[in-house]
Each structure stands twice: as structure tokens, then as C-alpha cells.
Design brief:
This protein is an alpha+beta fold. The chain folds into 2 domains: 1-30; 35-190, Domain of unknown function DUF1214, C-terminal domain (Jelly Rolls). The chain has 3 helices and 10 strands, in the order αββαβββββββαβ. The termini are far apart.
């Protein structure tokens, strides 16, 4: 009987450790193959391709991203600002930049649960066709609680991520995704 209990305890411990390792890999794990950084933005050129592998596919499925292949869309995600500060809805943030090299693009904020952040303004994202620009073509987007307008994304307190989608990206994006001119993310005041 003791042998059976020892085997059961060992199996249970192994299963628990395996489940934890899987959860950690999918939620906070090491970069996937092909992952590159461009400032605070991260991408994997394997997303949406046959080369993605089971762990990347599971991560994509878990976080709710419907991934097209890289000739159609390249996805960048940021969980920190350009200085390395964690994105948190208790602060105000600014996205500053110019149009990334793609036919169309959008930037969307997601809460820690990977869902859109509920807000009264229904302001979840900005895009190439829904943003004001300066005379030089640059834009500045405000992210924070109580923000609204075409140049704003409303937030709630807590951690969040930003997803930048480049639809029909220029060939240079896939050729060198670490050196694309992407928007800077700047921290403002915090509550």
C-alpha cells in the first residue's frame, strides 16, 4: 500500500510541476523561436505560419489572437513603455510616431485578461484611418482613464498590453522586424 501511495504522490507531484511549467511557458515564458524586439514592441515572424510550433500556437490560442501569416499581417505586442516601465492603467501614456510601413495599421489595448478594457467611451483602439496627424505626418495618442476622442484609448487601473497590427506590411518589415519605425510609448502622470 505504501508503494502505491508513493507512486501516486510522485505522479501527482510530476503532473502538478508539468502543469505549472506549461502555464508559465504560455503566460510568461521565454521568447518563442523567431521572436524579435523593436524597442518595447515584440513580434514573432513564426506567428500564423506552419513554422510556429505547438507552444507558440498554444500561446496564440490562449491569448485570443487570430493570427494571419506574416505576408498579410505582422503583430507587435508591448507590455512596457519605451523606457521599460510596465504598462498600467493607473498612469497616462502617449503613443508618439508616424505611420508604420503597412497598407493599414491599428493599435489596440487589452487588459490583463486579454479582453478589451471596458470603458464608457468605447475607445479601444486607434488606426491609420482614425487618427489626427500633425503637419509633419506625426501623431500622438493618449491612453488613460477618462480619455476620449479619435486620438485616445481609454484604460482602467491594472496591467495592460498594446497590440500593433500591420496589415499588408512593407517587405522590409518581415526582412528586418527589429528595425521598423514603430511608435514610442511614453509614460505620463500616475495616480
Amino acid at each position: 500500500m505504501r508503494v502505491i501511495l508513493k507512486l501516486f504522490a510522485t505522479a501527482a507531484a510530476g503532473i502538478a510541476l508539468g502543469l505549472f511549467a506549461t502555464w508559465f511557458t504560455l503566460m510568461r515564458g521565454a521568447p518563442m523561436g523567431g521572436e524579435v524586439a523593436d524597442g518595447p514592441w515584440r513580434t514573432s515572424l513564426a506567428t500564423g505560419s506552419a513554422a510556429s510550433g505547438p507552444v507558440l500556437r498554444a500561446r496564440v490560442a490562449l491569448h485570443g489572437l487570430f493570427a494571419l501569416n506574416r505576408s498579410e499581417t505582422i503583430y507587435y505586442t508591448a507590455s512596457t513603455d519605451s523606457a521599460g516601465n510596465a504598462l498600467d492603467g493607473r498612469c497616462t501614456w502617449r503613443l508618439v510616431g508616424r505611420d508604420p510601413p503597412a497598407r493599414w495599421w491599428s493599435i489596440t489595448a487589452y487588459g490583463a485578461d486579454d479582453f478589451l478594457i471596458p470603458n464608457k467611451a468605447n475607445a479601444y483602439s486607434v488606426s491609420k484611418t482614425r487618427i489626427a496627424r500633425g503637419a509633419d505626418g506625426s501623431f500622438a495618442v493618449t491612453l488613460g482613464r477618462g480619455t476620449s476622442g479619435v486620438d485616445a484609448i481609454a484604460l482602467a487601473p491594472g496591467r495592460f498590453t498594446l497590440t500593433l497590427r500591420l496589415y499588408n506590411p512593407a517587405p522590409g518589415v518581415a526582412a528586418d522586424p527589429a528595425h521598423v519605425a514603430l511608435p514610442r510609448i511614453e509614460m505620463g502622470a500616475c495616480a
